[in-house]
UniProtKB/TrEMBL annotation:
Gene3D superfamilies on file: Galactose-binding domain-like, Glycosidases
Keyword Hydrolase attributed: yes
Residue ranges annotated for the Glycosyl hydrolases family 2 sugar binding domain, each copy included: 29-218
Keyword tags: Glycosidase, Hydrolase, Signal
Organism, as annotated: Flavobacterium plantiphilum
Listed name of the protein: beta-galactosidase
InterPro entries listed in its UniProt record: Bact_Beta-galactosidase, Galactose-bd-like_sf, GH, Glyco_hydro_2_cat, Glyco_hydro_2_N, Ig-like_GH2
Compositionally biased region (Basic and acidic residues): 946-959
Assigned EC number: 3.2.1.23
Length: 968
């Protein structure tokens, strides 16, 4: 209890003292009520609104939408973001969602109000008399986007930053007494265009809001002041170089002393340095940069993901009548590259990352508190991650503070996706802006230990290689505290040769078009890269919407997209299956993430991955790719403990050639270990077990003790297990552990008899619904219809084993369209085919590329034995296998290729046996009765509801290259 209290106190101290601040500043917080007015016609400047009282009121910090300021959502709302699926605007079945009062935008979350343009904010402030002679600044944290400031009738200036506070020096404009401060904020996209899909501004994620969401304050301090402090750790030599910028705004020379010292504050171990003093002289109205070396002793603490020890640097500027102090948080760490490896304090580190896309569905804007960010980062870390990429945006300072505390390696980016509209390297304003913004990022956040990597943005267009080579070279020469890449890109983008590491696609994914295995890796694909290769946006495997999530949207945004999908599911007579669809598709999604991550971990020399993502992406057509929702909360089908078995600092791996066996074979596996720890695993013993579905132990073993250094795919030993004693169809499980630790991983595999017993059958097997089949049914007999390749109603729906990628809307219904299958696993039809309610690896040769049947004319409550889960943009009622009463008889219909003549598909063969045995048992008694014509129609008539894009492009006003997005 005492220990817990001690760490709680340390945490509270860390929250209070973590940021860089001046101890002797006087502050007037400007939170609260402000006068407000919308400037729809952009007339406020010419009409001098700064000289009159504004007519409305609002609270800051906050956004216009948060206080219901702006416009109602209509079909003509001018969104900031590309829409590639125009079908929503034309599909007859969606007409009701386009009606006034019932607008449901399916592409992203819907804000309470929407406004793009200028708005004015105004407040009267009483300036104390004792501020005379002091320097006074206005600090605006996270203003969105462009600000212009007036004091009374005097304009101070204009700022435009998406990454850093807007800071205005008001010293020359403020006197004691009442003063009026007016701020004009414009969130429209003008000549300076970062791209409408950039996560720094886009409605796809946080939304293009108007307001100020962080610290808003007037600060008074000494006219001779510490403007900037930058700390450059030298871990090897136990010292730090401290660069201090002193500004003298007075008309007299300044002569004084500056002292620096550091003390740890968030670790159970403590350390502090001696104070180092230096004289300093700054000429009148001048600036001086002083460099001081700060030595550390033998007790120096280093920062990494395992032990995120932090220091405060105290900087004291003292002279007669002048005192200015700063306290800056930093960590003693070195993040560098050696060959194709990242090193943290000379220790190899593998990056296990996800993207943060600015998902804040309650507010529509990013959190500016450490507590909020720490909650997110601790959730990420519980899932085995140690790295976060911020896609085309940079988070507020609170995120860096929280990551320092939690121990995460961050890759913020320049706030641009310069592709849909702007382009880089062509002399457009974005070229200089990315330099300006990243310089601001380095100044504001460069001391935070977690700020280890930097990218200029995401997936550019233009003269990108030349521009990004120069960008990387600029930063390598300027600041050695982190490593640099050009932009984060997909596999088709050109390589930027000067990038210190590659964050790119092209070497990712699962090749599940052939038999499944866990032997292959990405070695040959990354061999040409001599720098660290970090996989760009791996995963993107979809899961069905969680409609229970809708009630969580109690803030500015509503999940109108989810509401529409839920109603569409109900309209297609499957509303009661929503939770089952979520869980079944979720288990397949989890299986895919597990296998892709393990494939990367098996690859020697692979440096890391950046998932898209651990959490859902609420925009771009509603991309439900996360095992967590947009609130970073679990959906119910996987826990952090389960996920971190295959995504962690240490992960046992198994090279397995296949997952379905006959009992005449041996199960063979090569056991590996990937380790990325604080220290090597000394004399580690790895053990394994094979158990059946009842948990009975069938075999076990262990390997000789071995020391595992940090590396991927280190060989541990081999397993060879004869399956001859497995006489019944079985689902087995291989589990591998690192003894004495919590690190463990497991894999299911299936064993079928080499030859099933003959079934004395009265079932008529056929591949067409021919006259004999009809006669058998009319006479009370049984029919098995293998309709593989014969489906007409539903042939437009493509099912692969892999689920929907990203979502079908964003890619205009590009296949696959199915995201897993729901199986009535409790049915005796599966007595001889062990399965859960969701598809697993044994279903691959049954499910992959099989046709599906559209049951649009079947009774509303009809449920198939095996039900493919359609994309939620269509919600068609589908079947892979169904049973029914027809006439006096009974039938099973399969659009998967199941039958006595199927070759080289052991699971298909076994499932057919199980279904056939079921049909020849008293258990075969389908509940639902169908007319023969309904079944016949599946093989003769096309679906009535066919997806149509209606246009070849998005509506004109929404096109990425439309006038609204063009660079003027």
């Amino acid at each position: 209890m005492v220990k817990k209290y001690f760490y709680s106190c340390l945490f509270l101290i860390a929250l209070f003292t973590l940021s860089s601040f001046s101890i002797n500043d006087e502050v007037i917080r400007l939170d609260g009520n402000w006068h407000f007015e919308i400037d729809r016609n952009n007339e406020g400047i010419t009409q001098k609104w700064y000289n009159r009282n504004l007519s409305d009121n609002i609270k800051l910090p906050g956004s216009m939408a948060e206080f219901l300021k702006g416009d109602e959502i209509t079909l003509k709302t001018k969104w900031t973001g590309s829409i590639y699926d125009s079908s929503f605007y034309f599909r007859p079945s969606l007409k009701k969602y386009r009606e006034p009062g019932n607008i449901h935008i399916p592409f992203w979350l819907t804000p309470a109000k929407h406004y793009v343009g200028a708005a004015w904010y105004q407040k009267e402030v009483n300036i104390p008399a004792n501020w005379n002679g002091k320097r006074i600044i206005l600090h605006l944290e996270r203003a969105h986007i462009e600000t212009r400031v007036w004091v009374n009738d005097k304009e101070i200036g204009l700022q435009n930053s998406l990454v850093a506070p807007h800071v205005y020096d008001l010293t020359a404009y403020l006197t004691s007494g009442k003063q009026r401060i007016t701020i004009r904020i414009d969130n429209s996209i003008k000549e300076l265009n970062v791209g409408p899909d950039s996560h720094s501004i886009s409605d796809h994620t946080q939304g293009n809001w108007n307001g100020i969401i962080g610290k808003i304050a007037l600060e008074a301090a000494s006219p001779v002041y510490i403007d900037d402090v930058q700390i450059y750790p030298d871990v090897k030599n136990r010292k730090a170089l401290v660069k201090i910028k002193i500004n003298n705004s007075t008309l007299r020379p300044f002569s004084g002393k500056i002292g620096i010292s550091a003390k740890s504050f968030n670790s159970s171990k403590s350390d502090k340095t001696q104070e180092i003093l230096s004289k300093i002289i700054v000429a009148k109205s001048d600036t001086k940069i002083i460099e001081i070396e700060l030595p550390f002793g033998k007790g120096m603490l280093t920062w990494d993901e395992f032990d995120p020890a932090l220091y405060h640097l105290d900087v004291n500027l003292v002279a007669k009548g002048i005192e200015n102090n700063k306290k800056v948080s930093f960590g003693m760490r070195e993040f560098k590259i050696e060959g194709n490896q990242f090193l943290i304090n000379n220790n190899p580190v593998f990056l296990r990352g996800t993207l943060h896309n600015c998902e804040f569905p309650l507010t529509g804007y990013p959190a500016t508190t450490v507590e909020a960010w720490e909650k997110i980062f601790r959730k990420m870390k519980s899932y085995g991650l140690n790295h976060v990429r911020f896609h085309s945006w940079c988070p507020p300072e609170a995120a860096f503070k929280a990551a320092d505390i939690v121990g995460l390696y961050l890759q913020p980016e320049g706030p641009s996706w310069p592709n849909h509209g702007p382009k880089i390297g062509l002399g457009q304003p974005i070229d200089q802006f990315l330099y300006d913004e990243t310089i601001r990022m380095a100044k504001e956040y460069g001391n935070y230990a977690s700020f280890t990597m930097l990218s200029a943005g995401n997936e550019p267009a233009g003269n990108q290689v030349k521009y990004l080579n120069a960008f990387v070279d600029f930063w390598k020469a300027k600041d050695n505290r982190r490593v640099y890449t050009g932009m984060s890109v997909g596999g088709s983008w050109p390589v930027v040769p000067n990038a210190e590491y590659q964050s790119r696609g092209g070497v990712r994914g699962l090749n599940w078009n052939k038999n499944l295995e866990t032997e292959s890796d990405f070695s040959s694909a990354i061999a040409k890269f001599k720098v660290p290769f970090v996989a760009h946006e791996i995963g993107q495997y979809c899961v069905f919407p969680n409609f229970a999530e809708i009630k969580k949207y109690t803030g500015v945004y509503k999940a109108k997209n989810f509401e529409m999908f839920r109603q569409e599911l109900a309209d297609h007579k499957m509303g009661d299956q929503a939770k089952d669809f979520l869980n079944a598709s979720g288990k397949l999604q989890l299986l895919c993430y597990k296998n892709e991550i393990e494939k990367i971990l098996r690859t020697p020399g692979y440096a890391g991955f950046q998932m898209l993502g651990l959490q859902d992406f609420p925009g771009q057509g509603t991309a439900l790719v996360g095992v967590l929702d947009a609130f970073f909360e679990e959906k119910g089908y996987v826990t952090a403990q389960e996920y971190s078995r295959f995504c962690n600092s240490t992960v046992p791996l198994a090279k397995i050639p296949k997952f379905v066996y006959s009992n005449e074979e041996n199960f063979k596996a090569e056991i590996l270990l990937t380790h990325s720890g604080k220290t090597p695993l000394q004399n580690a013993v790895m053990s394994w077990t094979i158990k059946n579905e009842k948990g009975n132990l069938l075999s076990s073993g262990k390997f000789n003790p071995k020391t595992f250094e940090n590396a991927n795919g280190i060989f541990a030993g081999d397993i060879d297990f004869a399956l001859s004693e497995i006489t019944a169809v079985s689902q087995l499980n291989l589990e591998v552990k690192v003894n004495g630790t919590d690190f463990a991983n497991d894999w299911d595999f299936w064993v079928y008899p080499n030859k099933n017993p003959e079934v004395s059958s009265s079932v008529y097997y056929t591949t067409t619904l021919d006259n004999k089949a009809k006669e058998v049914l009319n006479n009370g007999g049984k029919v098995f219809l293998n309709a593989a390749g014969k489906v007409v109603k539903g042939k437009e729906v493509e099912m692969h084993f892999l689920p929907v990628f990203w979502n079908t809307s964003w890619f205009k219904m590009r296949p696959p369209h199915v995201t897993g299958i729901l199986i009535q696993d409790k049915s005796p039809a599966f007595n001889n085919f062990p399965t859960s309610y969701h598809s697993d690896l044994q279903w691959w040769d049954i499910q992959n590329r099989a046709q599906v049947m559209n049951l649009e004319d079947f009774p509303d409550d009809f449920r198939p034995l095996i039900q493919p889960i359609d994309t939620w943009f269509m919600n068609r009622r589908l079947a892979l296998v169904f049973e029914a009463q027809v006439g006096k008889g009974k039938i099973i219909v399969s659009s998967a290729d199941l039958g006595p003549d199927v070759q080289n598909k052991p699971a298909s063969k076994q499932l057919y046996f199980s279904l056939l045995k079921y049909m020849n048992s008293p258990d075969f008694n389908p509940e639902k009765k169908l007319d023969m014509k309904v079944i016949q129609d599946v093989f003769s008539s096309p679906s009535r509801e066919i997806f149509d894009t209606y246009t070849k492009d998005s509506p004109d006003e929404l096109k990425p290259n439309s006038n609204q997005n063009k660079v003027k």
